[in-house]
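This part of the workshop introduces the protein records we will be handling. Getting from the letters to the tokens is the skill we practise here. The record below serves as our worked example for the rest of this section.

…
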Amino acid sequence: GWREYESGHYREALSYLMRARFPGVNEEYFADYLMARCYEGLEKNDSAMLYYQSAISRNPDYADSFMGLYRLYKLSGDMENAMDYKRRAYAIDPSLREREPE
């Protein structure tokens, strides 16, 4: 799934990720995050939002999931929620300020 995601083959990546078994919580949150990124790449933003939220519930310390929700809310025009998620991401990982485009 990871290789397909990295190659931009989001449908194929989702196929692998949905069938995979993940033994620990750490792997589960990251699988949710990758599925969210795939859905975001496929412009299926409602599904992406659900998987970002699932990733956050599994690991509330992974700031990139919050940035995913920031991007989706910004895209939808909901700047209040977008900025809330962006602030939360930066509070967890201040280095995001340097690596995430505005």
The chain has a mean pLDDT of 91. Residues 18 and 35 are 8 Å apart (CA to CA). The two ends are 28 Å apart (CA to CA). The longest helix spans residues 25-41.
